[in-house]
Structures are given as C-alpha cells and as structure tokens.
C-alpha cells in the first residue's frame, strides 16, 4: 500500500480543500510574516542605539526613543501572532470537518468487498488522526514553513548588508545542511508511514478485542491478547523512538551548523571590528540578527518533519478516497411504478475477489425463480454459498456472471436507493446502532407521525419484540454499542422488526430466527406468515422450523440450485436434501411435521 507520490504531488492534492480558505491562509501568512519582521527589526534598532546613542555625544532622548520602538515592535509581534491564529484556526477546522465528512460519505458508498479487505482500525486512524494531522499542517505547518523560510532568507539578506564577509560564513554552513535535509526527507517519510500504519493496526487490535471481549474472557485468552497487544505496542514504540531519534539527529545538525558558523563569524567579526572594517554597532546588529534567525533555522527541522508526516497522512487518506465504488447507480436507471416482486436468478455466477485462483466460483450458474409474494427457503450444507446468494439481491456484492431481475428489471438497472427500498434484509449476525429502539426499527422506513407509530407497533408485534416497550425508557431506550445490552434473541427480533418495518417488496432473511427459542420462533412465524402474504421472501433456513415458513424450498448444492419443491417433495426425491435435513435435530423435525403447510405447489421449479 506504499504510495510513490512525490512530496509536491501529495501536498498538491490538498489544494481543492484548501482553495476556499486561501484568502484566510494568506492573511494568516501575512500576520506571521509581520511577526517575524518585527522580530528581525529589533536588532536594527539596537544598531542605531549602539552606533548613535551610546557613541560620544549621543543623547538620552535617543535611548528612550529606541526603547519605545523596541516595546512597540514587541507588542506588534504579539498582536500579529494572535491575529494569525484568529485568521486561520476556524477555517482550517471547517476544512477538517468537511474532509472528515466526505471521507465518511465515501466509506458509506464503498462496497462491502472494500470493507472486507480493510481493517476497521486503519479506517478509523485515517478518519481521525490523519485528517487531524493534515489540518494542523495546513493551519500551522504550511504557514510557518513559508514564514520561517522567508524569515531566514530576509535575515541572511540583512546579514549580507550588515557584513557580507560574515554572512558568507553562514551561507557556507547551509550547504551541508541541505544535503543532510534531503537524506532526512527520505528516511523520515518512510518511518513516518510505518508509524501511522502501525497506529492503524493497533487501533484494529483494540477494536477487535473490545468487540470480542466475551470470547477472550470465556476462553481465558485475555493474557495472550494482552501479550499480542504489548508486542504490537512495542513495535510502534520502537518505530516512534527511531522517528524521534531521526528528528533529534536532524535538529541537532540544524542547530549545530549555524552555531559553528556563528562561532567562526565571531572570531572573524571581532578582527574586522578591530581593523575598523565594520562598526561595533554593525557587529552587534549582525549577531543580534543571527540570533533572531537561529530560532527559525532550528524550527525548520520540526516543520519539515511535520510536512513529511502530513504527506504520509495525505497519501493514506487518498488510498481510501481513490478506491473506486464499483457498485453504483445505473447510467439510465429504471423506475418501477408499483412493484410486484417477481425475482429471477438467471445463470448467476459469483466469486469473491480474493478467492484463490484454483477455487471455482462460489455460485456457479444459479437459476431460480421466485413468484411475487412467494416465500422460498434456501437450504444447503454450511459454506455452500447461501448468505452469498442473498447478498447479491440488494447488490451488497455484484454478480460476476448472469443476472438477477425484479419484475424483469436487472437489479443493476435500478438506482441503489430504489433497489434498497424494494429489498430489505435481516442477517443472522445483527447490527444495532447506538440510537433508540424506534430509530433502529424505523431505519428503512420513510413514514412519519402516526403512520410511523403504526408501522413500528406492527413490526414489533410480528417480530415478537414487545419486550422493547418494557425497556427503561420504552421505545426511546438507547440500544446498540453505547446503549443497553440486549440478548442475542432480542437483537435478532429488533433486526427482524427493522426489515419488516421497511415494508419491502422483496425480503431477504439470512437465518433471522436462529437465536430464538422454539416457542418464540413459532409466534414470530405466525406473525411473519400474515405479513409475508404480499412480500416475496427468500429466507436462509438452518432449522426445519424456518423451512416451515416457506411455500417452497430451494436446495443449494455445489454452487447451483439442485432442486426446488415443497419440503415433503424434496424429502421424498432428493438424497442430498435428506442428508442436509438429517443434520437437524429430531425435535425440530417433529415440529416441522406439525407446522409445514400442505397446500404448497411447485409448478415453477427450476427455471
Ligand atoms: N467476504 C468473503 N470473502 C471471501 N470469501 C468468502 C467471503 N464470505 C464468504 N466467503 C466464502 O464463500 C463461501 C460461501 O460462504 P457463505 O457465507 O455464503 O456460506 P453459507 O452457505 O451461508 O454458510 P453458513 O451456512 O455456514 O452460513 C465459503 O467458502 C466462504 O468461506
């Protein structure tokens, strides 16, 4: 993931973000420049003071005037520094917020396949610390780098005017500094990249451990997890030490060389003053200017380090921002009026992008037809591709061959918004957001007011999630990561209610009842049967009781639909189906015998 952009290419990518605040940055720059000029002017006042006021015949009035001027210059310098902050900080934080928002928007748009590949900590560190580093560089590093460089250049020019011979000694010291600076740039950029990547990996580890804390505790692996974390933290520490040493070394050279030049020019300067080639006032002004320039020169090291760190942050930021979203709206989207909900899979192929070369397609020519309003169970051995097939309907992944249509329209011909309004999903592994029960359930619904209340109440009833009314603050109770912890079954019922409340034309359920007890599952099924009447439903079933919900069952085997029919038909004619069903427990099979509906027909089986 290393980025080969040059420093200028990387920094240049910030331009569109910086563009709106350029006038403010220029004002900030002028203020910073003003502050530097005030600092550089003070030695010149000293020169006048020494040459005129302290010379024979000098007046006390000149001393007072010079002191007054120094005071005014000092106050002006402080005012300029304050103004610089005033001009730059607020607009730079706006840029930071906008960049973070567009980063978040982009993450939302990127495909599930992208999120499969990227560690959450890497994305977190890019969203938080990298963007923060960019803002700090924009608001401070960039301005100070320009001002510091200009200050040094102006200081050296003044030093040349004061005494060109002494100034030459200073300029000679700059040559090795530049050579060293070039080498520093390469090594520091590399270590800075390593440190930021390791920070992201560490964040991923924290995130995983926090999510998996129960597993770690239950398996008594907390100590091992801590040891792994310590090892990773130690690696980061080593990188940080190397980084700090590298900067310290560079700063030492940057400080030392001008100091050596100062020492050499002191020797030369005193002899020039003794021979009368320079005045005492000029000598004092020269060294006072050199002292005023020394600060900015030393500051260049940390500023360059900040610039290289910002470059790394920009590169990391754009690695995500440049990732293309391959699942997008159709160029000329089709809008269905009233959708019926006929779903057809035609010769559907799919393979994951990171699949091994020798591995075949997970889905290898799926042909399946769901009639509008039909409920179809999808059954197959574990890992055969049931969840994968489901995720193709709302285009969480795109088919790699063939196509899926709803009412004869390819799912890729809808806008994503339309498609995801038509299709709602509930997965076995439920995700709830840190908001109220109400907002979690109504996430996929645009209804408001009394209509929303009615939909909410109905969805909670069908999903047997009435427990939500008894939560501490009823439906307003905060759930999700930052809220009240719910049981697995409670979470599943909220997620199911969310899918129902979306009132979709096509409902895709990935074993949504797995965590429920048999009695609750039975009640949910009764409710579902009532609402599924007009909804086409494809439901992954791992339990016979879930199969009981379905009008027909599709058997997925070796990447194809091997058979379609009622449960009893498949039991009677298909060995593989019997094998899959035999792996289910006896009690559930007994329950299936009671629950399965007799009036099923399969006139439209395999397409
Ligand atoms: N994001 C992914 N990237 C690469 N391969 C994946 C990904 N998700 C699943 N797979 C692989 O695809 C195959 C099908 O997985 P899938 O989850 O669809 O099976 P499943 O039938 O739903 O399994 P189960 O019944 O255990 O839930 C498996 O071999 C799995 O390892």
UniProtKB/TrEMBL annotation:
Which InterPro entries does the record match to this protein? Answer: AAA+_ATPase, ABC1_TM_dom, ABC1_TM_sf, ABC_transporter-like_ATP-bd, ABC_transporter-like_CS, P-loop_NTPase, Type_1_exporter
Membrane spanning residue stretches? 21-42, 62-83, 137-158, 164-184, 247-274, 280-306
* Record GO cellular component, one term: plasma membrane
Task: Quote one Gene Ontology molecular function term.
Answer: ABC-type oligopeptide transporter activity
Q: Where does it localize?
A: Cell membrane
Question: Which topology term describes how it sits in the membrane?
Answer: Multi-pass membrane protein
Its keywords, alphabetically, are: ATP-binding, Cell membrane, Membrane, Nucleotide-binding, Transmembrane, Transmembrane helix, Transport
Q: Which residues form the ABC transmembrane type-1 domain?
A: 26-306
Start and end of every ABC transporter domain? Answer: 343-583
What main location does UniProt list? membrane
This protein is called: ABC transporter ATP-binding protein
């Amino acid at each position: 993931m290393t980025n080969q952009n040059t420093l200028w290419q990387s920094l240049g990518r910030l331009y569109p973000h910086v563009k709106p605040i350029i006038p403010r940055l220029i004002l900030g720059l002028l203020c910073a420049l003003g502050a530097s000029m005030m600092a550089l002017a003070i030695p010149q006042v000293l020169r006048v003071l020494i040459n005129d006021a302290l010379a024979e015949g000098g007046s006390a009035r000149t001393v007072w005037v010079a002191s007054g001027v120094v005071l005014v210059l000092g106050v002006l310098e402080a005012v300029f520094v304050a103004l610089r902050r005033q001009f730059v900080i607020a607009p730079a934080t706006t840029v930071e917020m906008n960049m973070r928002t567009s980063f978040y928007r982009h993450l939302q748009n990127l495909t599930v396949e992208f999120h499969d590949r990227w560690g959450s900590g890497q994305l977190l560190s890019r969203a938080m610390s990298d963007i923060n580093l960019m803002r700090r560089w924009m608001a401070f590093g960039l301005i100070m780098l320009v001002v510091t460089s200009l200050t040094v250049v102006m200081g050296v020019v003044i030093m040349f005017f004061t005494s060109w011979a002494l100034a030459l000694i200073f300029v000679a010291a700059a040559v090795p500094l530049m050579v060293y600076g070039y080498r520093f740039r390469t090594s520091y950029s590399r270590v800075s990249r390593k440190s930021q990547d390791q920070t992201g990996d560490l964040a991923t580890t924290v995130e995983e451990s926090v999510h998996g804390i129960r597993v770690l505790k239950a398996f008594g692996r907390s100590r091992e997890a801590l040891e792994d974390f310590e090892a990773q933290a130690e690696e980061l520490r080593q990188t940080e030490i190397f980084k700090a040493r590298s900067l310290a070394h560079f700063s030492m050279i940057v400080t030392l060389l001008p100091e050596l030049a100062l020492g050499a020019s002191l020797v030369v300067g005193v002899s020039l003053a003794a021979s009368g080639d320079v005045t005492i006032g000029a000598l004092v002004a020269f060294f006072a200017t050199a002292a005023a320039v020394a600060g900015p020169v030393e500051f260049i090291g940390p500023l360059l380090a900040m610039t290289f760190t910002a470059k790394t942050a920009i590169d990391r930021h754009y690695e995500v921002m440049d990732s293309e979203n391959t699942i997008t709206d159709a160029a000329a989207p089709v809008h269905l009026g009233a959708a019926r909900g006929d779903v057809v899979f035609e010769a559907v192929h799919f393979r994951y992008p990171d699949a091994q070369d020798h591995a075949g397609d997970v889905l290898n020519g799926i042909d399946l037809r769901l009639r509008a309003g039909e409920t179809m169970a999808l059954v197959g051995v574990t890992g055969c591709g049931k969840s994968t097939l489901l995720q193709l309907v709302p285009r969480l992944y795109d088919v790699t061959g063939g196509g899926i249509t709803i009412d004869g329209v390819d799912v890729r011909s809808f806008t994503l918004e339309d498609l995801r309004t038509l299709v709602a999903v509930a997965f076995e592994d439920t995700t709830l957001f840190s908001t109220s029960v109400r907002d979690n359930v109504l996430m996929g619904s645009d209804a408001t007011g009394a209509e929303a209340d009615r939909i909410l109440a109905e969805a909670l009833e069908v999903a047997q999630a009435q427990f939500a009314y008894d939560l501490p603050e009823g439906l307003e109770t905060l759930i999700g990561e930052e809220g009240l912890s719910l049981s697995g079954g409670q979470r599943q019922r909220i997620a199911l209610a969310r899918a129902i409340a979306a009132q979709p034309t096509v409902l895709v359920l990935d074993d949504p009842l797995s965590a429920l007890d048999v009695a609750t599952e039975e009640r949910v099924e009764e409710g579902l049967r009532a609402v599924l009447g007009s909804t086409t439903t494809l439901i992954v079933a791992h339990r016979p009781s879930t199969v009981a919900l379905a009008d027909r069952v599709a058997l997925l085997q070796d990447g194809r639909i091997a058979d379609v029919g009622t449960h009893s038909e498949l039991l009677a004619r298909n060995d593989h189906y019997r094998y899959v069903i035999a792996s289910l427990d006896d009690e559930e099979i007994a329950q299936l015998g009671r629950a399965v509906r007799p009036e099923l027909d399969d006139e439209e089986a395999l397409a």
